[in-house]
């Protein structure tokens, strides 16, 4: 995966960064912890300017968040519960987990959207309860944009400052990214096998 991300980013610049960060939000096994430090490393070597890499990463992340927000808003809570009752095992979600997520979001709202941008996997799915709760679009976008830009900035700046050091650990990235994907697939299979609709 690392080699694929590297080739794509070298050929596409800021557009590739934005596209990869959008995909990271839609498909979690593509980690921002891999994309943005590499974008910063490339910026240090004279490719896309650091500020543009951060802006592109934040924009792509925001687009991915908005994608899930629209799904949650358009689908609606009752329709989601019906879907979970019918296909909960394969979605690995129970109706009570949907209720708990909605209760939790009702208590934390915008703070959850902002802080969720810094947590792997959560940053992908925090937009769904925001949409289900019919959170106003502008506050959702503002909280998401702030969190996305900060997260992208921290990771890209780390890659920029590491520069030569980043290249020395790059050979570790392929097995690590593969391990992340295998871990997520294993977790999904475990959730399917141990699914209990009453939990």
TrEMBL record:
GO cellular component: plasma membrane
Domain of life, per lineage: Bacteria
Domain (VTT): residue spans on this chain: 30-160
Annotated compartments: Cell membrane
TM region positions: 12-30, 50-71, 140-162, 168-190
Keywords: Cell membrane, Membrane, Transmembrane, Transmembrane helix
InterPro entries hit by this protein: DedA_domain, VTT_dom
Record has GTP-binding as a keyword: no
Listed Pfam families: VTT_dom
Membrane-topology descriptor: Multi-pass membrane protein
This protein's name: DedA family protein
């Amino acid at each position: 995966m690392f080699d694929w991300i590297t080739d794509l980013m070298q050929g596409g610049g800021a557009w590739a960064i934005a596209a990869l960060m959008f995909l990271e939000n839609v498909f979690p096994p593509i980690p921002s912890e891999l994309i943005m430090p590499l974008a910063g490393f490339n910026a240090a070597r004279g490719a896309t300017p650091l500020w543009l890499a951060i802006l592109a990463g934040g924009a792509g992340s925001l687009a991915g968040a908005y994608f899930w927000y629209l799904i949650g808003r358009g689908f609606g809570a009752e329709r989601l519960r019906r879907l979970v009752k019918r296909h909960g095992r394969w979605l690995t979600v129970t109706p009570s987990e949907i209720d708990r997520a909605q209760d939790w979001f009702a208590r934390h709202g915008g703070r959850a959207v902002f802080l969720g941008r810094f947590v792997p996997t959560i940053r992908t799915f925090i937009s769904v309860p925001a949409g289900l709760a019919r959170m106003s679009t502008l506050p959702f976008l503002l909280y998401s944009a702030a969190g996305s830009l900060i997260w992208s900035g921290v990771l890209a700046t780390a890659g920029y400052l590491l520069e030569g050091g980043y290249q020395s650990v790059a050979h570790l990235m392929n097995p690590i990214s593969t391990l992340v994907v295998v871990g997520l697939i294993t977790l999904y299979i475990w959730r399917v096998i141990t699914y209990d609709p009453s939990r």
